[in-house]
Design a protein that fits this description.
heterodimer; A: alpha+beta; 11 helices; B: alpha/beta; Elongation Factor Tu (Ef-tu), domain 3; Rossmann fold; 2 domains; seven-stranded mixed beta sheet; 6 helices; globular
Chain lengths: 332, 265
Amino acid sequence: MGYQLEKQTADEIFNCLKQDYDIFAPKLFAGEGCFSDTDVIRYGKVESLDEICWSRRSDYSFKEAFLPVNEVLFYFTEDSTSVPACRKKPALIFLWSCDLHALRRLDAIYLTNGPEDFYYKRLRENARFVLMGCEETCDTGFCVSMGTNCTEDYDLYLKVEGDSVLADLKTGEFQKYFDGKDCREQEVIPDHVTENREKVTLPRNLSTETFSDSVWESYGSRCIGCGRCNFVCPTCTCFTMQDIIYRDNENTGERRRVWASCQVDGYTDIAGGNSFRKNQGERMRFKVMHKIYDFEKRFGFPMCVGCGRCDAVCPEYISYVNIINRLAKEEA
Amino acid sequence: MKNEYIPFSSQVKEIIPHTDIEYTFRMSFPEAGRVKPGQFFEVSIPKYGEAPISVSGIGEDYVDLTIRRVGRVTNKIFQHYVGNTLLMRGPYGNGFDIENFKGKEIVVVAGGTGLSPVKGIVDYFAGRPEEAVSVTLIAGFKSPQDILFRKDFEQWEKRIHVIRTVDSASEGYEGLTGMVTKYIPDLPIADPDNTVFITVGPPVMIKFTIMEILKRGIKEGNIWISHERKMCCGLGKCGHCKMNDTYVCLDGPVFNYAESRDLID
């Protein structure tokens, strides 16, 4: 069901939603970027529609609002364990089409690869997704190439245009917030881009031979293994288990899982001193092949959604887009 | 729904020391009947974290975990086990399927603690040698001090063909010396097509062992390996054990070589 409504009415609806949901959306943090005098856009709890950064892609993905960077799996005392409660209010998360496609990738790993993940499932069941449209392409994204530029899998679509707001309700859950309000029914089709500046051709004949391609060697010295590309990626899911002891009572503590990066030292270390992929070039190969080949082989669709955040964040200006296009070119 | 991350507490029933740094912990596990050799448990002590440990023996109501004191978690296990419990979750992984080896000439090639995951197979066929055409165990250790499962070797030697070697030893050592690969070329093999090899150990050992095995005219599909990787979750989520499109914790750790030869770390 689509509606056109006044901004003021939308604000009233937003305030009602706030009572029932914790609302997360990309926000502009002026001057808080990595370098001096730079801004950063990342997720945070928002109190009004005006706080939301609609038009510039966030530097960090919705994953930050959806999945905890450090997640407590259980607390332990000397002889018992207890599982922390889930968030009280459901989360309402604003995101773009590419990120909503990324959610399907997270689902594949957490819900279908091996047994269902208890913690992911309860967060997932307790989250709703509000699509934000893209009127124009972002700088580094290539969603059109990846087929992630439009989606219908949202719960709610919102677009603020001056004093007018467009809304589309995909699920009945939000109907009650619009009922009785001054809304005009109309068909609403979410904005989406049909062309990006970056274009990617996915190599279609990759094989295990690609693993030994010379492409990877050049990244051995360029990549510094900081792992930023993994942490901004909306589809990366790796984590490491970690135990923490509380300082005031050493017999109590918690077991957590913490986001991990396949580019950072220690990722493959096994007890006794062996480790795999010591060279950054091998790690780059591992990541890229996962995003465009391995994952698809296992789940039937590519992992990468083409959001372009990894290219924007890399301190060494390594272009993942270039890597893929190079592989495609070699193939041709 | 089941929360797979919550461990259960298991009583240490018995400790069997092998070397200064390698003990077998016999852990109570009432459902031991459903455990297969080659599978693993995530073993932990709160405060210090979890480590994947493969099953080295399966009893009626217990599983043996042979633990080598090499890391943060295993260090603590050695310090804290006395009369105590360990936390465990599992079993995870596919494990070895005994049926693949029945009626065959079986050769097990194991290096160091790599013997743990295949010990169940050796135990099975040493107990029922009539279920195989022949059974050979080639086990390699770094030095005589590093030899594991000495008592088991005494039993096995009575029933199957055992080649126990050490990489190097001081003068006067009466046992065999040299790498495990040294003993593959001269193995008596009656029918290569009916011979299966199982090899577990450090990655380098597996690599050279397979080269030797192939020289003997054994088909790739007749070779089985078990991979050791960093399995943080054991549930296909954490990503650390992934190779190509394969998750060692779910699809392995036991692999047929023909199907896994192209797996690249």
